[in-house]
Structures are given as structure tokens and as C-alpha cells.
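retry 2 of 3: previous attempt timed out while embedding phosphoenolpyruvate. Reduced batch size to 1 and resubmitted. Inputs unchanged:
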Amino acid sequence: MINKEISFSSWESWFPSERSHLIIAGPCSAESPAQLTSVASHLVANDIGIMRAGVWKPRTRPNHFEGNGTQALKWLSDIKKDHKLIVAIEVASAKHVEEALHAEMDILWLGARTTVNPFLVQEIADALKGTDIPILVKNPINPELALWEGAIERIYQSGNKKIVAVHRGFSSYQRSKYRNSPAWHIAIELKSHYPTLPLICDPSHIAGNRDLVFEVSQKALDLGYDGLMIETHPDPANALSDADQQVTPESLSSILAQLHIKEKHSTDEVFISQLEELREKIDHVDQELMEVLAMRKNLIEQIGDYKRQNNVTVFQLERWNEILRSRAKWAERKNINPQFVQDLYKRIHEESIKLQTGIAEMEGKK
Ligand code: PEP
Ligand code: MN
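retry 2 succeeded.
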């Protein structure tokens, strides 16, 4: 459901830029003044106005480099002044917020390991009261939309409307080619609840591997994302954190140059009228789909009555297996993904069991 009460500032209102997208680049961690200077000069030369760098690094295991902390804040203040760049860092506690504000950092972000923790997010939101510094909120580690939305709402309730959601993928047990699997549908749902919320993608943490950064970035742009945050390091292989996924400043430029940017809307009248026509057809098809679902529901109610009268159980395993098998086969014949159809039938079957046992009726009365 669209949340009409909440409306966010557009990113262009606080970061006027020649670019059509909000581009943030810089190293995973601020390692040294020389490293920061090297990236900063490249960003300035390529019209990328926002530099990221981690100051406090949340590492999964102890005894790893955990960031240069307070001294890195000083390096970033110098970078900001010397290169006229906007600087963005991660904060994970009220103390980090205080130090970051004191050092005049321009943008703060909440990492995935922070978004997941409502206590920490609230503590950060309280520390931000009275400021209007832009805040990026990364998705939580686990694919739970409510946690992501909850973190955004906590920041919003502290009085800040300059919020940007960042999709950085989700941890998963299943092995995949990504370090953190993207869940594009979760981000789309977030956007549908908060249409004014700017949404950017962090392809680096999704990919976990620099060779995939381009394709993930392209996918995000194809889906209409407002921007990208790309980890960039002058010597990625020797980076102190996330060495596999960072790209050199030169590759950053080539990735940005090769990305195909599609328009969100078109003013071409032929295109608009053809799109309208296709959308009308989809509306008709969906109405027919609804008729078919209503017919199916009616049949299910009849079967339910019949089983009840004859004292037969609602769930019949063989029939269910047969449905799954046959529908997958029918799907294949129509060139539809059989896995998708099986998933759809699981939902349909769940509902039909509810209908036959009267659970749906009880839930409707709650
Ligand atoms: C980072 O941006 O370097 C970082 C630690 O990100 P995440 O919270 O997405 O893991
Ligand atoms: Mn990183």
C-alpha cells in the first residue's frame, strides 16, 4: 500500500548534478591520505561529485582491519576541502554520528548490519535529530522488507526527509554467483510503498566480484534506479577490505561510460499510444484471469462440500502431486517457466485448502 503520509526529498534537491543519476564512488575503507587523494582526483576529473569511504568497518570476524576510525575522519575532511567533493561515510552508533557531524561529513549511511537492528537505528535516529544531513539506508542483511522500511521510518521520524534507500543484496544460504543475492522484487515493493523515496544500487556488495559490477549496475538502471554506489580503489587487489569487488578508478569510468541509460518516460507520442494500447490489453487479460480464478474458487467450494458430505479428507496427496506435475507440463508447452507455475499453484492450493476447511472464512472475520 502506498504510504501517502510520508514524502521524501528528491536527491536532486540536495545534490544538483549534470548527471542523470546519483553516482557515489570511493574505496570500501579509507586506508591512507594517499589512497584517498588518488581516488578523489579521479572522481573530480570525471565529474563524480560524491566520494564514499568507510571509516569504521563492520567486519564479520575479529582480528581483521576494522577501519582507521577517527584519524580517517580527519583525512576525509582534508579531501573534502582540497577537492571540493561531498564525502559519505558509514555510521553504526550514536557516537559515530556525533564524530561524523563534528568532522563535517556530508552524507552518512547505515550499513546492512545496522539496518537489521532497530535499537541501533533508533539510537542513530535520535543522534540525528535537528540535522538534515542526507542519510543512505542500506537494506538489512536478511530479505525482510519491514526491517528496511522500519529503519527508513525511524530516520524519517527524527525529522529528516533526505533519505535514500540502497539495495546491496541479501545474504543467502544458497550458493549463487553473487556475494549478496539481489532481491529486485523487494526493492520494487519498497518503491511502491514510498514512491518518492530515491533508490540506488550498490552493485559492489551485491556482486562481491569486480567482473560482475557492470552487469548488476546495468540491471539496476534498467529497473529505473536513481543511482549507483560503486566501490573504487586505486589498487583493488591489495585493498584492506573487500579486495575482490573493488574496481580501479579507470574501470569505474569505463563502467559508467558503457552503461546504457534508458529514459524513465518517453515523450514520443507513437510510443505513448502503443504503450497505452498494450496496457489496456493487459487490463482485459487480467480481468479474464480474475473471472477464471472466481470460477475455480466456485468449483473448489463445490468439491469442499462434496468431500464433507462424503466424509473424505480435504488434502489428497496424489491429486496434489498430479496437479503440480501436469501444470508444470502445461506451462512448458506454452513456453512459461514451469517453476514459476508450480510456485503459483502452491499459493493457489494453499488458498483452496483454506477455502475447503473454512479457514479463509475465519481469517476474513478477524
Ligand atoms: C560498505 O559499504 O563497505 C559496507 C560495509 O556495506 P554493507 O553494509 O552493505 O555490507
Ligand atoms: Mn565494502
